[in-house]
Amino acid sequence: MIESMIDLLTRVVLIMEDGGSGKVVVLVDMDCFYVQVEKRLHPELKDKPCAIVQYNKWQGGSIIAVDYEARKYGVKRSLKGKEAKEKCPGIHLVQVPEKRRKADLSNYRKASGEVMKVLSGFTSVIERASIDEAFLDLTEPVKDYINSNSFDSLEFHADLKSTHVAGCNDDDDTHKDDCDLRISRGDWFKSSCSSDERVLIVAAILVQRIRETILNEVGFTCSAGISHNKMLAKLAAGMHKPNQQTILPQSQVDVVFSTTLLKKVRHLGGKLGEQVQDKLKIECVGQLQEYSLKVLQEKFGLKTGSWLYELCRGICHEKISNRIITKSIGCGKNFPGPSKLKTAKAVKYWLEQLSRELVERLEEDMTENTRQAQSITVHFLPEGQASSVARTFALPSYNTSLIVNNSWNAINKGHKPVTNEESHLTWTTGILNIHLSAGKFVQCGKGHMKSLLQLMSSDQECSFVSASSSHSSIITGKEVTQMTLCKEEREDAVLTTTPTITEQDQSLETSSMNITKFFTPIKRKGSLETQLDRNAKRREVVLEEIKGTLESDDDTIIDNQFEAVLCSECGEEVLKFVLEEHMDYHFALSLDKDSQIN
DNA sequence: ATTTTGACGCT
DNA sequence: AGCGTCAAA
């Protein structure tokens, strides 16, 4: 009974030409993004087959992006650089930059930001879906455009060269079919076209402009899918690449779905897609239409069942959030097989490297987005375990030592050493991966007029932490006085951390890694901006002093960075502000020795 | 020995 | 909070 009512309602919805969404949704997807970023940086690579690799010591590195020229030779993601050379001897392999002995993706994040900025010029509703993809809600812009005067004077054939309509044989130039004629002739547009297709064609004109603007302003090509919801837009975007766009109207859904493999649909590319395929013995999305809502819910649960029921009819209610910056900032590194971390020294070294990258990125994020992360989660994968372990702790200030120490404690809790010989703890099992992720961002700082306005006007994505008096919380056994997060109170916030140094910590403190003290208390006075200004000034001075020969250093604010000290390892005089890097250098040497012994 | 990310759902 | 899934380069 209920089922037949839902079937009836669904049929009614389907009579509505756009599947009931009433929206215009676009997915913009950059073509082989990392390759384009590198080619912009190295124009001589233009028109040459090219792939991006991470690292290259082992098998020529792992490929993470491939341009369309190289794809012709069968070069794919996840191949080794070496294998790519075999398939395509002329290929140019560009390495991802490395910093602190790990891959550094910041160039690509910056380029992504450039694209997002251009997109924000066209519509107020943008969802960053990944580093190179964004969903746009063009419903309003399309309405505006239709209501504007320029609408009548459209010349479709001129503007829609790179536009396709899904489900039409538009690949063969000699056999232009109905779909192509539709979009290339204004007269058809005015007379013989359903209203949902009409808005999508107008959207296609806007998307064409958006893509041209991205190319002109930041120099990247992209592809796009134009439809009524996220699922269809994403599917459409993949149909014609690179540098093209595809309309997928509701009227074409059945035709397209009759040959679309399940795993090609968003969210069905993994285990669920396999389950659906196996349980129902079907291959294509369209075949799902043969199953009642009841049966789908029995087999896959209430929620997933109704999701599948609607999905195969082209209906998808996934909301487009309004957010072009990430909700978390993280970095991690794998230590596969032979390179697994076996000593406390090695773990601390990499925690230091990861923490420094994280703090660097968090500080940039703060100046860029006037927000501050409130928590860190450390993930690590002990050898022999199926899944990684995660532990979360509070982040009262952006401080490398704090992150290193809390992470170290977290890792130690469930991972006991078998021997403990003077800063050389050894575990029965090694550590195969460490990942640090900062999250729980709250808006902060001055210049809050603008950010507050943004906050108020945007949909739920941003949330306030209500301004209240300072409170303490117990997290991972450490008492932390948190700052008040909003408004004026913040100005006078003073941070204190209460150190609880364990025996193990102290034994480690003698290790060459521990340059700064654990939980160096940080007192803050004055506004955030003042702090940032000071940091910026300090960096300028430092940069001038060392003439750009060294990475600018980060975190721990020490009064006199220019005081020289004698290095305990080599006896050289070293300025304090490069001491950490200097010790890293020694440690890297010792690690290399270690690995030679092994 | 793909690696390094990031979002979200489940419990 | 911690784990699992899915996805992108």
Describe the structure in your own words.
The chain is of the alpha+beta class and 598 residues long. It has five domains: 2-13 and 262-311, Orthogonal Bundle (DNA polymerase, domain 1); 21-30 and 107-171 and 183-257, 2-Layer Sandwich (Alpha-Beta Plaits); 33-102, MutS, DNA mismatch repair protein, domain I (3-Layer(aba) Sandwich); 329-484, Dna Ligase, domain 1 (2-Layer Sandwich), CATH 3.30.1490; 489-597, no CATH class. 39% of the residues lie in helices and 18% in strands. The chain contains 21 helices and 21 strands. It has a six-stranded mixed β-sheet with strand order 7-8-1-10-11-9. A hairpin with a 6-residue loop joins strand 20 (564-566) and strand 21. 33% of the residues are buried. It binds a DNA duplex (11 and 9 nucleotides) through residues 29-30, 32-35, 52, 54-55, 58-59, 61-66, 77-80, 96, 102-103, 105, 108-109, 128-133, 266-272, 326-334, 336-339, 377, 379, 387-392, 435, 437. Its cofactor is Mn(2+); Mg(2+). This is DNA polymerase eta. InterPro entries: DNA/RNA_pol_sf (IPR043502), DNA_pol_Y-fam_lit_finger_sf (IPR036775), DNA_pol_Y-fam_little_finger (IPR017961), DNA_polymerase_eta (IPR052230), Rev_trsase/Diguanyl_cyclase (IPR043128), UBZ3 (IPR041298), UmuC (IPR001126).
